[in-house]
Amino acid sequence: MSQKIRVATTSLAGCFGCHMSLLDIDERLFTLLEHVEFDRSPLTDIKHCGPCDIGLVEGGICNAENVHVLREFRKNCKILVAVGACAVTGGLPAQRNHLSLADCLQEVYVTEISLEHGGIPNDPELPLPLDKVHPLHEVVKVDYFLPGCPPSADTLWKFLTDLLAGRTPSFAPELIRYD
Question: Does the 5-95+129-175 domain belong in CATH 3.30.420.10?
């Protein structure tokens, strides 16, 4: 392979566990780096996504900033991958979806026992929260879905090496988890 594949990653409303699984491929990272150049990623500390071949996105969408970042990724990535339960279904953050946003903010910032004089933040620097947490495919076209909480390092490795080899990714049943 003469030219390296450009890969970008980001985390939206999630826990960063999917990025940890990427790091958990351990020494295989060195093999991956022979074929891949990372663009936006916590590994590079690049903040904006440039043109990329593959975009890996973990986390659901809970605020206006998440929507902006996701749309930037989709625009700049030939292949967009929803990585993990939060990106695929909304995951744990989506458990608030059965409550109203106003009730959530009231509980967290005003009536929580540990808050003596709480107040709901109202700073223009804070991203506007959405009424519901959404999976990625409700906002942009997603090319591949990697379920799991988080997907294992072996699942990410298999997925990336299949794509790099020009194969359609396929998985043995033990590599796909819906937890």
Answer: no
